[in-house]
Amino acid sequence: MDPQLTEVWQLFERFKAAFIRKDYDSCANLLSQLKVLLTKFRSLPPLFENTPNAVNELMLAREIYEHAVVLSVKIEDQDAFERDFFQLKPYYTDAGIAEFHTELELLSATALENSCIKHAVELEQSFMEGAYNRVLSARQTAPHETYVYFMDLLAKTVRDEIAGCCEKAYDYLSINDARQMLLFSSDQELLEYIKEEHPEWDVKKGFVFFQKAKESAPCKEIPSLQLINQTLSYARELERIV
After folding, report:
1. 89-136, pLDDT tens digit by residue?
2. Comparing C-alpha atoms, which of 78, 80, 98 is closest to residue 28?
3. Better-scored residue on pLDDT, 50 or 111
4. If phi over 0 gives left and psi between -120 and 50 gives alpha, with beta otherwise, what is residue 188?
5. Among 52-61, 73-82, 111-120, the least confident range
6. 3-state secondary structure 180-241
7. Whose CA is closest to 235, among 163, 160, 161, 135?
8. Whole-model pTM above 0.85?
9. Which residue has the higher pLDDT, 157 or 203?
10. Cα–Cα distance for residue pair 126/17, rounded to 1 Å
11. What is the mean pLDDT of the chain?
12. Staple partner for 91: which of 50, 62, 151, 158, CB 3.0–4.6 Å?
């Protein structure tokens, strides 16, 4: 085996060992070294030169970036996820793998039965129907542990959208009504959400008052559709990785 390829392979084995024992700090350090070493392979994007070890180099690099994406999910680093995802994407696209993440309608009936794809499709259908309760409960049926982080982001986006509508539509709500509308299972969860996300709301005598929020500066628009579409896209991409 080529000495450079051997060096990368051995370092990657150390990365995987650290990943298994959940030593994510070591993983991050080793990943930085791996990315530097990968720049020496001219067979990789964007050059794609047909070098003697091109196939092995491409396969190894793809696996490294797949692990990088999963690592970013494990440590809940969305910026790293986006960087690693876009570095990984050319390895799928140029390998000729179907880009079903852009056109769900083009998927075969067999593919749609895949648990990972089916989960993303059902999420999209729930959004179309406005069935936010199904969106939030879908976290419990996530087909892989790497989905959970993005399901949590999705849940927050949904609740932020509902909260914005509540502020505009009502002057106040009872705690019970607010809990039901924001799809919390307990009053305590609702109160914690208000404390962390909406300290401008007043909670007193069993009611949630939105007047202060209305009197404050105009609320910035929540890019909910963009965030939802982005998260669903990530879910589809994770299916190809895991």
Report:
1. 777 654 433 343 455 566 677 877 888 778 877 877 776 666 777 877
2. 80
3. 50
4. alpha
5. 111-120
6. HHCCCCCHHHHHHHHHHHCCCCEEECCEEECHHHHHCCCCCCCCHHHHHHHHHHHHHHHHHH
7. 135
8. no
9. 203
10. 39
11. 80
12. 62
Q: At what angle do helices 24-38 and 3-20 cross, to 10 degrees?
A: 160
Q: CA dihedral in degrees (170, 125, 102, 35; nearest 10)? A: 70
CB distance 24 to 74 below 8 Å: yes
Q: How far is CA 129 from the centre of its chain?
A: 22
Q: How many residues does the chain have?
A: 242
- Cβ neighbourhood burial of 68 (10 Å; 0-12, 13-18, 19+): buried
- What was the pLDDT predicted at 193? 92
How many angstroms separate the first and last alpha carbons of the chain? 28
Of residues 160 and 22, which shows the higher confidence score?
22
CA distance 218 to 199: 16
